[in-house]
């Protein structure tokens, strides 16, 4: 569990990399980071959603048992959730479980392996697992896919594999499971919001407005959101900060109408400042890479 920081609100998400409403909470968390800046610190506890899909059953959504049947039901559930939270979902050829890989625990352990190495890269890695699972229909509980994603975000693959395979990450995950049990965070996402010695649990998906009210209450109004202009420059800075964003993340963070969002995206595309990548029932936006630009974090050079 993270250590309390003076004058900073901690938001700790009990999560699983393939939880659909955790995926749906990404726009809310990015808005919190943008509007509150360094006044808010977001971190994650890996809570382990499905130990074994063959022994799991969600009666409300009729998910569990046979892995192939479960994939069909999960894809349907995720698509319905996507229509509410707005994040992209790839329902065709959706692959989350198989007979050989019936658990989401590998994704949780993989995050802990990344965290042992570098916290910033670990959070980028968590986002890539979410994207690959929800919007790219990848079997992210396989070591091969996890290594690919780890490499993409710039992790040291050899060290990642060592921590992932030889017990260090497993031990860290078990500590997270113990923390999850201690807080009785049985549904995901669950958010622990903490300021000094005061803390409260928020269970399930929560809107930005709900977080804002809780933050103001816990801090007695000493920590407030800051004005965030909806200029193209500010939006472009937001895209550069995160590298890959969905339209709903821009719309929510900057309080745009659908028309304003579309106008901004069209303008940035026309100026060749961004690229658009189709993903399931939506798309992602990334900064345009200059010709033969090299990313110092990943060591990848790309030509456009």
Automatic annotation (TrEMBL):
Coiled coil spans: none
Residues passing through the membrane, by range: none
Protein name per UniProt: DsbA family protein
Taxonomic lineage of the native organism: Bacteria, Pseudomonadati, Thermodesulfobacteriota, Desulfuromonadia, Geobacterales
